[in-house]
């Protein structure tokens, strides 16, 4: 493991790190690493191994019930297995 000394934390950054550490029950060092990784666009290591990404997260909860029903109806044909394709 590498060590790095960082100086010059302003009060806002320090408060944010302390708040994150307290909320997640982690050390200040772990909070700093988490924030650094996030700022660098790197994974923070908390994703599940089967997680693909978060690029579609903005759409979660954005459809109306009617839009969701329309999509479900459009996809119904894909729920049927064509047994002859497996012969």
Mean pLDDT over the residues: 83
Helix percent reads 40-55%
Largest sheet: none
Order of helices and strands: HHH
Structure summary, number of beta strands: 0
Q: How much of the polypeptide forms β-strand, as a percent range?
A: under 5%
Structural class of the secondary elements?
A: mainly alpha
Overall geometric form: elongated
Low-confidence stretches: none
**Distance between the ends:** 55 Å
What's the total helix number?
3
What radius of gyration results from the CA coordinates?
A: 22 Å
Quick structural overview:
With 87 residues, this protein is mainly alpha-helical. The protein contains three helices and no strands.
């Amino acid at each position: 493991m590498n060590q790095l000394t960082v100086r010059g934390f302003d009060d806002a950054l320090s408060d944010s790190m302390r708040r994150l550490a307290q909320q997640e029950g982690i050390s200040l060092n772990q909070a700093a690493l988490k924030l650094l990784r996030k700022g660098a666009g790197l994974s923070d290591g908390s994703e599940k191994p089967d997680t693909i990404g978060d690029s579609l997260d903005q759409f979660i909860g954005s459809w109306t019930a009617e839009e969701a029903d329309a999509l479900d109806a459009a996809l119904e044909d894909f729920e049927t297995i064509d047994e002859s394709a497996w012969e």
